[in-house]
Amino acid sequence: MAHQMVVVIDFGGQYNQLIARRIRECGVYCEVKSYKTPIEEIKKMSPVGLVFTGGPNSVYLESSPHVDKEIFELGIPVLGICYGAQLMAYTLGGKVEGASSPEYGKTETNYDTSSALFSGLNDKDISWMSHGDYISKLPDGFKAVAYSEGCPFGAFENAQKKLFGVQFHPEVNHTVNGTKMLHNFLYKVCGCIGDWTMGDYAQTAIKDIREKVGDGKVLLALSGGVDSSVAAALLSKAVGNKLTCIFVDHGFMRKNEGDEVETAFKGWNINFIRVNAKAQFMSKLNGVSDPETKRKIIGEEFIRVFEQEAKKIGKVDYLVQGTIYPDIIESGTGDAAVIKSHHNVGGLPDYVDFKEIIEPLRLLFKDEVRQLGIALGLSEVLVYRQPFPGPGLAIRIIGEITDEKLTILQDADWIYREEIAKAGLDRSIHQYFAALTNMRSVGVMGDGRTYDYTLALRGVTTTDFMTADFAKIPYEVLEKISSRIVNEVKSINRVVYDITTKPPATIEWE
């Protein structure tokens, strides 16, 4: 794609994706690359700027990540963040050592607003520090442009060479005007013009896909989730009815959700195949209560059903996957552990006869995928759908799954989601759902004794889903939800709200 590009060089920092997202929010395209990426490869990418991430190491140790000094001599502007700033100083002749008083958290910081980095900002504000080492001596040609009580070189620059370093993290919300600092670097230092928009991306992607596919046939496993739905919409715009989408409805979707997915694609120029396989899945799960066993059975059965339908189509040329950019990064950028493989369709390539995989969303973050979905004309209901596990409600029913339990949970979950939306909280709570426990308790309804199920409500706020806090839903909203569920849903007489963070808990219950 013919966009200006900034390359984020990853040194193992926990905020590498967040830095990239902030840059893209400023209208500039960027990619994350390992610090091990050869300089020649970086030069071929023709970046207008480089950003070095933070990292957990001490730069003065031989075992820590380092870069060749040549990278600072390419004439490409560089912004070093935390470890990246220390690395710049250390590599160019400065000194870095352990701090007697490490800084962590919100820190009052003084800024030199004559620096391009802090142009238009307050001369004193809060930054987010997180460092045990500090720069005790700057390299020749550099000057300090920010400081805090415990950090004499909170930021520094060699304006002539367009080299900048900040000891704090401008990418996190805790740093006041942090995004503005990044914006200043991009536009005042790198000369960015802001040519990264979802509308432009959509047009470029459609053109590229159309040229690649030609007269070929394309197959997509449509789960009804955000990623696969947006991928389907993009392919539809590009190749029309050369695309076949197989939607395997295992019966564990939320209330009316299978119909909503089918309706959403009814007017699209694609071959849409819905397989209603609930009976087949339920028969395999009869008597099974262990969550991992449930997941495995559902995954294997999904593959079998998909294979049966794919064989009816015959040979296809391309298989589409809804891989997004965090999946690529989590596959092991730099020295990061491999969290998951981004070719994660459960073995589909082993038996579907195709010549190439198309991953049309592989450059996008989740929020960008949603923006693309809206730009392509998908309904907001589908685009802003809550995150949903592959096995669906099967792992939100604790213990064995029955038709009765499935209906109970679908009805209760629907009320929960409806009331959250009515309260205007559906965008501020990042994930919320109901889980049907296998615990029964005594209750009183009317003048009679009941012995029915306890329903658990879960709601979390998070930036990365690796950690999460429980959502502070107002009591009056929880009260209304509880009252409606107990009164409208058969067999529930008690509602509880999960106030556990992740860690120690996970977001899902199973």
Walkthrough of the structure:
The protein has 510 residues and is an alpha/beta fold. Helix content is 32%, strand content 25%. It has 3 domains: 5-189, Class I glutamine amidotransferase (GATase) domain (Rossmann fold, 3-Layer(aba) Sandwich); 198-383, 3-Layer(aba) Sandwich (Rossmann fold), CATH 3.40.50; 402-497, GMP Synthetase, Chain A, domain 3 (2-Layer Sandwich), CATH 3.30.300. Strands 2-1-3-4-9-8-7-5-6 form a 9-stranded mixed beta sheet, sandwiched between helices. Strands 12-11-10-13-14 form a 5-stranded parallel beta sheet, with helices on both faces. Strand 13 (318-320), helix 10 (325-330) and strand 14 (356-358) form a beta-alpha-beta unit. Helix 5 (198-213) packs across helix 11. It is globular and about 80 Å long. It starts with a strand and ends in a 13-residue tail after the last strand.
